C-alpha cells in the first residue's frame, strides 16, 4: 500500500486524528485508527490491520507510543514490510519504517504528530507533510487536510492518487453528542481524492458544524416575513421541518434566532 499519512493530536482541544492518501482503493478502510484520550494510529505499507486495534489496546493500558511500536513490530514476522505511525494520549509520537519498505520510505515526528510514507516520489513529501502540519493553525481537521494537500503538491505517492481519508475523534463531539467520531470522511476512488475530501469536509462542516451563539442572527419582523415566504415556496410552514429534511436540524435553536448557515442555504434553495 503506497501511502503517506499523518497521525496527530491537539491536546488543548482533546482531539486525535489521522489523514492519509494512497494509490489504493478505500485507504480509509485500513490505515486510520483513533480513540479519544488514547491516541491515533496509521498502519500502512504492506499493512498489518491488527496494528490498529492491538495498538489502541496497548495505548489504553498507558503504554507510550514508541513502546507500542516496539511491541507490535517485535511480535510480527512481517515487520520489515510494515510502516506505522502513532501518537498517544499524551501527544508522544513515534514512526516506524521497516527495512523492506519500497523507496522512498521513511518518517518524521514532532510535537504531537508523526508523518510517514512509502513508495513516494521523494522524501520531500514527508518533510512537507510534517512541516505544514507543524506550521498550520486552526482546528485539527483543517491542519491535517492542509498537510495532506501540501504533501501531494510536494510529490506524493509515486504511483499517483486514488483515495484519501480523514478521521478525527473527540469525546462526545460527534453526531448528536452521542459519538466520539467528530469527522470520518473518505474519498474511496477518485482522480483527485484530496480535493474530493476537502469538498466532503466543507459539506460536513455546513451540516454538522456549530455556529457560536454570538454569531446567530436575530429574527426581526422583516426576516420573519422573508422566512415565511421562502418556506412557503418550498411547501413548509416551519423552519424546523424544512431544516430536518435538509439535515440542518442541529443548527436550529429557536424561532427568534437563525444560524447564518441555515439562512444562506434556505436563500440558495428557494
Folded structure, characterized:
The chain folds into 2 domains: 3-208, 4-Layer Sandwich (Glutamine Phosphoribosylpyrophosphate, subunit 1, domain 1); 213-269, no CATH class. 34% of the residues lie in helices and 25% in strands. The chain has helices at 51-60, 65-74, 124-135, 140-153, 193-208, 221-233, 239-245, 260-269, and strands at 3-10, 15-22, 32-35, 39-45, 82-88, 93-97, 106-110, 113-117, 163-169, 181-187, 217-218, 257-258. The strands form 3 sheets. Strands 7-8-1-2-9-10 form a 6-stranded antiparallel beta sheet, with helices on one face. It is elongated and about 70 Å long. The termini are far apart. The model has no long low-confidence stretch (mean pLDDT 95).
Layout of strands and helices, then pairs:
Layout: E1 3-10, E2 15-22, E3 32-35, E4 39-45, H1 51-60, H2 65-74, E5 82-88, E6 93-97, E7 106-110, E8 113-117, H3 124-135, H4 140-153, E9 163-169, E10 181-187, H5 193-208, E11 217-218, H6 221-233, H7 239-245, E12 257-258, H8 260-269
Antiparallel strand pairs: 1-2, 1-8, 2-9, 3-4, 4-5, 5-6, 7-8, 9-10, 11-12
Helix pairs in contact: 1-2, 3-4, 4-5
> What's the CATH C level of the largest domain?
Alpha Beta
CATH superfamily of the largest domain: Aminohydrolase, N-terminal nucleophile (Ntn) domain
Strand content: 15-25%
Helix content: 25-40%
Largest sheet: 6 strands, antiparallel
| Discrete helix count | 8
> Could you name the CATH topology of the largest domain?
Glutamine Phosphoribosylpyrophosphate, subunit 1, domain 1
What is the number of domains?
A: 2
Strand order of the largest sheet: 7-8-1-2-9-10
- Residue ranges: pLDDT <50 for 5 or more in a row? none
Number of strands: 12
Element order, helices and strands? EEEEHHEEEEHHEEHEHHEH
CATH architectural label of the largest domain: 4-Layer Sandwich
Report mean pLDDT, rounded to a whole number: 95
Structural class: alpha+beta
Amino acid at each position: 500500500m503506497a501511502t503517506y499519512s499523518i497521525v496527530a493530536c491537539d491536546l488543548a482541544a482533546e482531539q486525535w486524528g489521522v489523514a492519509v492518501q494512497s494509490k489504493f482503493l478505500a485507504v480509509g478502510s485500513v490505515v486510520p485508527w483513533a480513540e479519544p484520550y488514547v491516541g491515533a494510529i496509521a498502519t500502512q505499507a504492506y499493512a498489518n490491520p491488527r496494528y490498529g486495534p492491538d495498538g489502541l489496546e496497548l495505548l489504553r493500558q498507558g503504554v507510550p507510543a514508541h513502546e507500542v511500536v516496539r511491541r507490535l513490530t517485535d511480535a510480527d514476522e512481517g515487520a520489515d514490510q510494515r510502516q506505522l505511525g502513532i501518537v498517544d494520549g499524551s501527544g508522544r509520537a513515534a514512526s516506524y519504517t521497516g527495512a523492506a519498505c519500497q523507496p522512498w520510505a521513511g518518517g518524521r515526528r514532532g510535537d504531537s504528530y508523526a508523518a510517514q510514507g512509502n513508495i513516494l516520489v521523494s522524501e520531500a513529501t514527508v518533510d512537507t507533510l510534517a512541516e505544514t502540519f507543524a506550521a498550520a493553525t486552526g482546528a485539527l481537521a483543517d491542519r491535517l487536510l492542509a498537510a495532506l494537500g501540501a504533501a501531494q503538491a510536494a510529490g506524493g505517492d509515486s504511483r499517483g492518487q486514488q483515495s484519501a481519508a480523514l478521521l478525527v475523534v473527540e469525546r462526545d463531539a460527534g453526531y448528536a453528542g452521542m459519538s466520539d467520531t467528530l469527522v470520518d470522511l473518505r474519498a474511496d476512488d477518485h482522480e483527485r481524492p484530496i480535493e474530493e475530501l476537502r469538498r466532503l469536509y466543507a459539506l460536513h462542516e455546513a451540516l454538522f458544524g456549530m455556529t457560536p451563539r454570538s454569531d446567530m442572527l436575530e429574527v426581526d419582523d422583516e426576516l420573519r416575513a422573508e422566512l415565511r415566504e421562502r418556506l412557503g415556496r418550498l411547501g413548509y410552514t416551519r423552519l424546523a421541518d424544512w431544516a430536518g429534511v435538509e439535515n440542518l436540524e442541529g443548527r436550529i435553536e429557536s424561532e427568534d434566532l437563525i444560524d447564518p448557515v441555515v439562512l444562506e442555504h434556505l436563500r440558495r434553495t428557494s
